[in-house]
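Study this chain:
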Amino acid sequence: MKLRGLYAITDSQLLAGKFLSYVEAALEGGVTLLQYRDKGSDESRRLREATALLKLCEQYKTRLIINDDAELASRLGVGVHLGQTDGSLTLARTILGREAIVGATCHGSLELAEQAKADGASYVAFGRFFTSNTKPDAPAIALEILEQARARFHLPIAVIGGVTLENAPQLVAHGADLLAVVHGLFGADTTQEVTRRARAFNALLKRA
């Protein structure tokens, strides 16, 4: 599966009051994958928001991924991203079928990535590489892990954790295919700025 480009990830607090307008602005600038990430317990709201995102993604031909909830992903017929404590990747693959995108958090571990690949992951995600608002306590990992992963796996490699337009070129140079971005994309004052940032992230990957 060819997955390369901007991987936009939503944040309920950051996007409060401007959720769909900012997401659409990002899609306007080009998004390969959009992850709906919401740790709240209100299932009806999560279904409503994810359904609205799916409609937008279909308009822009973007693939929607649900964070940590294979059941919701199954209801909508979309992909899922699982952390190390978020359930079985093999089970998610069984539930969602062969065509679905199933991603796995691997932190800084090639062994976890190896296991994820064996369990049917569509891509492996490494991070954090830089200071992150979303995961401030996660240990930082070295850029060299990307080169090692690139040499070892024939899977798309996603990078997450404090990714900005300033530091993203280093990640792309070391082998990243998908730039997973939250604040670096959505922490903008206007929808126009969100679109500009999305285009700029994509341009970095096209040049590589």
In short: Strands lie at 5-9, 33-36, 63-67, 79-82, 102-105, 123-126, 157-160, 178-181. The mean pLDDT is 95. Residues 4 and 200 are 14 Å apart (CA to CA). The chain is about 45% helix and 15% strand.
